[in-house]
Amino acid sequence: MNDRHACPQRHDDREEIARLLPAPADWDLPRAQHLRHKDLLMRHIDRDQAETATPEPSTAPVRRARPLLRPALVASAAALALAAAGTTGAVLSGNGGHDDAAAQHAATDMRPAAALLHRISDAVADHGTLTVRDDQFAYTREKVRGADLTSGKAVVGPLEDYESWVSQKPGPLHTLGLVRADGETMPINAELGDTKGTPAGLGRPTYHWLASLPTDPDKLLAYLYAKTPAAEGRERDQAVFEQIGSLLGGLTPPRTAAALYQAAAKIPGVDRSSRVRDAIGRPGLGIVRDDTRYGVRTEWVFDAKDYSFLGSRSYLTKDASYGKAGTLLSSTAELAHAVVDKAGVRPAAEDRTGTA
């Protein structure tokens, strides 16, 4: 049942349970995954309360596909400058640090991961720019699988079909689009706390908003370090890497997509792997990063021929209180992307053009 139709007491119960929902003991989920699990719990709460409440008109409960990240607070100019300095790796010395910075950039560009990301960047830059109107919707079809951590243990669910239609309107919205999961169509509501609606941004990346981002990799990375929401105890580099990952796989302007891959190449700890598969088992080239503190690996999977983004996967690399090493946390497989005129209506021909 939607919050809009819930009685005040029921709304208070949901808010209280959401506030008290414990985080995993050893690892703070990326915000998108945490919201997915919280929404799942809220859905069960709605159903339990609906069974005991007086019957009344209702609508389908809300569950998000690829939950949208909450917009970050605007950082100060000083924080932005610090982020820029941190990402360029400049170290002040007697000669102004230029030689050290140049040497570090050269070393970064020689890493296998950086070389692959630059090839991916070059490939996506050749894609055509789409014409997307504000009254249209970005359509995505994918396969997803993930672990539910609300019990304190990782319970890996089945592979699911997901379709989503995300509004491209720039202004704050209370209804962001639609999602169809397991044959059930539901609205995507604004993020919890966005009482005036969720605007276009990191939490709701529209095509035009993505096109407005800096296309210089250093400036883009500085922006992401400044804007990416902080997670307690989480490595900042890992948070930004996962933020970039959340922007991949959809309809992304070619220049922005190219800059995102070049920016990712500059993040410390990013590596390459040849043993990666997406949620439906398609093998590909991998860009990976390990969160060594919590023992979690995040992988991006790319087609070995055309470098298109196939999907992503994250799993435990060491035993934790909620799962053994190797336990899957999330995986996706991108199947189709298109621009459509109406939410809930599939495109006449599924089109991957413009996929990052």
TrEMBL record:
Superkingdom in the source lineage: Bacteria
Name of the protein this chain belongs to: CU044_5270 family protein
Species: Streptomyces griseofuscus
